[in-house]
Amino acid sequence: MLNEHNIERLIQRLAHDGLCIGKERVGFSMDTYVGVKDVSTSPLGDSSSRPGTVACIAGHCYLMATGVTVQEAIAATDAETIETVATDFLGLTRDQASDLFFDLPEEIALMDVSVEQAIAVLNRLLDTGEVRWLPASPMQQ
User: Fold this and answer.
1) pLDDT tens-digit profile of 27-60?
2) Do the domain assignments include residue 113?
3) Among residues 44, 48, 83, 122, which one has the fewest Cβ atoms lying within 10 Å of its Cβ?
4) DSSP letter string over 80-124?
């Protein structure tokens, strides 16, 4: 059964620029469970970037559910554990979890998923109980 409260908490975290774990801000990247990658430092999306901590939907759920530090999550956690904790945290079925975490439609690459798309799919999940990814609108690209 969907955990609507935790889904709403996750939406709020994503909508407000991610999680803060201690002093570290965790941004969004659907192609990284929890890790460090170059993130843009410019609101204009130019090529300036710096290393930053990011997590996908499952990674954000894992951090919220466990309270571990980012370094602990990176060092000691495997993908299956993150997915299991995230599935339980959101109250998903196995099929819903698969569709939400990694089995996206062919035309949507994990690395291209925007935080707006993630929030939209989570809102649709709350409204319908179904995971339905949609391509980014032209305004989001």
Assistant:
1) 899 999 998 876 554 444 444 445 678 899 999 9
2) yes
3) 44
4) HHHHHHHHHHHT--HHHHHHHHT---TT--GGG--HHHHHHHHHH
